[in-house]
Amino acid sequence: MIIKGFKTRKSFAQAVGVSEHSISNLLNGVYNPSYLLMNKIFEVLDLTADEGMAIFFSNYLRNKKVYEDFNHEPTA
Q: Which domains does the chain have, with CATH numbers?
């Protein structure tokens, strides 16, 4: 995001057309974006679909998230 000139989540969210809260949730892995939202993010970041998929859905990141979810201590 920074490379493309977005210095804040708010400015990026405005360019994408969603709330800053939505971008925060995406970046923190709270939920997965819809197909339409991912395409808009790729468009705003000037990425091809292949580039975007490689960045946002790499095996490393996916495996790291699964590991963190699996090893997360439940809260009471």
A: 9-70 (1.10.260)
